[in-house]
Design goal:
Helix content is 45%, strand content 16%. It is α/β, with parallel strands linked by helices. The chain has a single domain, classed as Sugar-phosphate isomerase, RpiB/LacA/LacB (Ribose 5-phosphate Isomerase B, Chain: A), CATH 3.40.1400.10. It has a 5-stranded parallel beta sheet, sandwiched between helices. Helix 4 runs parallel beside helix 5. It starts with a strand and ends with a helix. 37% of the residues are buried.
């Protein structure tokens, strides 16, 4: 699937990085939906994980990017939404595998763990990656877990 639209969300710790990622996506020609927050006042990350995940799950956007301090909380929250395969990545390799092996439809990063330029590079690796269909049976098993 070719990605054309991306929804972004963060918590207060990830606002600055989210903004930089959104700017980069726009420069690259993607349609961007910034679901907030838009300042550094304290917020609860599950609210923003849910907003972005529901947009992806419903098909309103092709994919999503979430950012919090470590990425752990966003990852837990996003993966509660049916149809979401959110991957917390830490480097180029995990970004590549998130797309190629897991067909992750949401990329998650920790703003306190990755330098902004490196995070942008990781996002680019994820965006240009292509899912390897040989892994589909595993994704089908994961989808079955949602009904358990």
């Amino acid at each position: 699937m070719s990605i054309r639209s991306v929804a972004l969300g963060s918590d207060h710790a990830g606002v600055e990085l989210k903004s930089r990622l959104a700017d980069e996506l726009r420069k690259m020609g993607y349609e961007v939906r910034d679901e907030g927050p838009h300042n550094t006042e304290r917020v609860d990350y599950p609210d923003y994980a849910a907003r972005v995940s529901r947009l992806v799950s419903s098909g309103e956007v092709d994919s999503g990017v979430l950012v919090c301090g470590t990425g752990i909380g966003m990852s837990i929250a996003a993966n509660k939404i049916e149809g979401i395969r959110a991957a917390l990545i830490h480097d180029h390799f995990t970004a590549q595998m998130a797309r190629e092996h897991n067909n992750a439809n949401i990329l998650i990063m920790g703003a306190r763990l990755l330098a902004p330029e490196y995070a942008i590079d990781c996002m680019k690796v994820w965006l240009k990656g292509e899912f390897e269909a040989r892994h589909q049976a595993r994704l089908d098993k994961i989808a079955q877990l949602e009904g358990d």
